[in-house]
Amino acid sequence: MRTPAMPSQFRTLAMGAAVAIGMGQLVQAQSDSSRVQLKPTFSLGTGMLGFYGDVGFQSKSYSPLVSRIGYELRASAPVTEWLEVGLFALHGRMSANERSPSRNLNFESRITTGGLQFTYNFHHLLKPGRTVEPWVSIGFESLEFLSKTDLMDAQGRRYNYWSDGTIRDIAEDAPNAENAVEIQRDYSYESDVRESNVDGFGKYEEQTWAVPVGVGVKMLLPHGFDARIGATMHFTGTDFIDGVSSNSLGDRKGDGRNDRFLFTSFSVGYAISTKPRKKKWKPTLSPEQMDAIAFNDDEDGDGVMDWNDRCPHTPPGVAVDQHGCPLDSDGDGVPDYRDDEAGTLAGAPVDARGVTITDDDLLRAWLNFKDSANVTIITSRVESFGPVGKPKVTRAATPAKRTYVVKVGSQVEGISEELIQRILSLPDVRTIERGDTTFYIVGSYDDLPEAIKRELQLKGQGFEGTVMMEQNGKLLDLPSGGITPREEEVLTKLTPSTPEQPGKVVVRVQLGAFRHRLSQNIFTGISDLVTLKGNDGLTRYYTGSFTDINEAAKHKVNMLLNGFEGAFLVAFKDGKRVSITEAGAQLTGPENLDDIPLGSINTDNLKFRVQLGTFAGNVPMETMSKYVDLGNVKPVASQSAVRYLYGEYPTRTAAEEARKELRNLGFEDAFVVGEMNGRIIQAEDAEKLLNGQ
Question: CA within 20 to 30 Å of 685's CA: 285, 354, 574, 616, which one?
Answer without folding.
Answer: 616
